[in-house]
Design a protein that fits this description.
This protein is α/β, with parallel strands linked by helices. About 25% of the residues lie in helices and about 15% in strands. It has helices at about 25-30, 35-40, 75-85, 105-110, 160-175, 210-215, 225-240, 255-260, 270-275, 275-290, 305-310, 315-320, 385-390, 395-410; strands at about 5-10, 45, 90-95, 100, 115-120, 135, 145, 150-155, 180-185, 245, 265, 295, 325-330, 415-420, 425-430, 430-435, 445, 450-455, 465, 470-475. The radius of gyration is 22 Å and the shape is globular. It binds alpha-D-glucopyranose.
Amino acid sequence: MWWDNAVIYQVYLRSFQDSDGDGVGDLPGALSRLEHIAGLGADAVWLSPVYPSPNHDFGYDVSDFTDVDPSFGTLADLDALIVRAHELGLRVLLDFVPCHTSTEHRWFREHPEYYVWADEPANNWRAAFGGSAWGEDSVTGRYYLHSFFPEQADLDWHNPELRAAMGDALRFWVQRGIDGFRLDALDRLMKDRELRDDPPASGPPALPTDPADAVLEHRYSRNSPDVSRALQAIRDAVGDDILLVGEVYLPTGELGPYLEVLDIVFSFDALHAGGDAAELAAAIDSGLRTSGTGWVLSNHDFSRLPTRSGADNARAASLLLLSLPGTAFLFQGDELGMADATPSGPPQDRHGRDGFRMPMRWDESPHAGFTTGTPWLDTANEPVPSVAEQERDPQSTLALVRAAIGVRQRLGSEADLIEARDGAIILEGEDSVVAVNFGDGAASAPPGDHVELAANPGDGDDLTVVPAHGGWVARRDR
Ligand code: GLC
């Protein structure tokens, strides 16, 4: 399929390109920058939620699944973006949010049966963003389930009418020419029918979790054994040709049931491994054994790669993740080496994610060409060089990322992890060797024959050595 080995570029619309000076990125702005994405060699664009939203969670609290938020433009603007993307050879994915709606969605009053209700908080479940997962509805005095913010009421996927309504919303977008969906928060999609209490945790969580939530083992609040019924309803609505990418916040080893229906699921193990080579190697090993792994450099929810891996290792880590078989996801700004920033203004996201969502830096004009107005987020610390500046520098991160995507197309669709020790990770493909080293000393490597790409200048001069914090991709003569 087209997405095997593809690179999918994540556009966080609010921070990509503003076209009307209101300080918020929008669809016409994104359309005007599609050449940049195509020029990287990416195969597809994933747009963060475009739907009308009161923005308590910046678009992930949807108040209408079949329209566009006025701050982003109109449905016609989205149609135009799809057409232009297709002309450039880019597929378009929407971010679809099946787990919950905004409490301002008309369904919340007109179809309360689409949601999960109780007369009292029904159990000890915790919301991912803190506090009880049960919110009191001031109108009825009853309690509704919310796995995230209280403004995001959880939908009941056991209800066939809800499944049908969501199927209609998905088909609406397929008919407009959308090529796929990134499906939000799927481990929370299906609830335990009996709403049983989660037992106390017997050890640390497998993935980083809010400390108050980590005291429980999420046996009933997440990862329901009947999730495939909901996933199958989504698949049936869109058909087999539409790419379905799952955001499932579970270790790779537990993704099997999701991959029976979905095409790709993100590897959060690899994302959270950061600069720990042993942990990253283990995550890569399980990802390589799981067909459908999506490798993620950064996204809008977690620290960016240079912050997680350490600035020294960022180029090598990017080279490695972009060279792995599977599908790779590049968050806007990854190509510039953007690290977490300190926002200069008041907090926008209540969960503290502003620093990962700073506006793109396009050129040397005021606000780096993102907006002619006042950006909704601005940075208080030294920003990375802009796209225009990096275009002039052959050693820039932008040049490295573009070259890595180019080389990726020549790498095979298989690779084995052959070594992981002392900070070094080495993979062998059909006729290639990928080697990186997060350690402070040089590491030895099984040689390739011709260097194809080096993380830092000089890294590939001797293909039996991987320099400290360096790496290379080499080709082998058959
Ligand atoms: C996903 C999104 C995140 C959002 C949450 C609730 O994890 O990536 O941004 O806050 O779901 O929808």
